[in-house]
Amino acid sequence: MSAAARFEGKSVLITGAASGIGAAAAKRFAAEGASLMLADVNAAGVATVAEEIVASGRRAASRVTDVSVLAQVEALTAEAAERHGGLDVVFNNAGIGAFGKTPDIDPESWLRTFDVDVHSVFYGCRAAIPYMRKRGGGSIVNTASISGLAGDYGLSAYNAAKGAVVNYTRAAAIEHAREGIRINAVCPGPIETTLATPLIRHERVAPEYERAIPMGRPGRAEEVAAAAAFLASDDASYITGAMLVVDGGITAATGQPNFHALLVGGPGSRGS
Prior knowledge:
By secondary structure, the protein is an alpha/beta fold. The chain is built from nine helices and nine strands.
């Protein structure tokens, strides 16, 4: 099967689909033949993405869903399966961030971060797995982050939540591997989306990112969508419990100074 038809006849559910990575993933899966159920709390945004996909000749529907509420996730999953005759792929992508050192974080913000970033992933997997069992298998992709693989300054709530997604993904993957259900995660680095761009392009932050990213630029939502589509596809048939990092090389570095740039310099030296 060609890459352009990897999801022909497949039913795919995507959360956080109104913008950014979710919207890019919706368009990527649609271009590869999927029938889509898209969810977001942004009613107008997710409806617009679905309408664009329908206008392109593919099947898509949208549903306003707060993924931090189990009953809403269950209703969303049931509608996706009913509309498209089952459920093959789920991309648990919805998430939020939180900023502040531990003494300064509002406990409500901490709890809300876990509700949206962690509990939603559990709800999505819990709701989807019974439908995938009926199909004889399926694929779940969760959006984690490089912030779930190491710590960041001022992002302890987000770090803790995404770290939970990372290890929950591993645990769920081994639990369901023999049922033909693969569960993986993408771990994006800095990606230019509507929510993240103001931080990434901040006049004091942008130069630090340019020094930190070996590839020298933030990522695009479409690049994460491509990684998610790969993990969801049969091209990744022997991959489960994996964290696919999409970060331009940030986590490949030790964090030490760029000795070559500082001591030798010259074209192509990161940070020169």
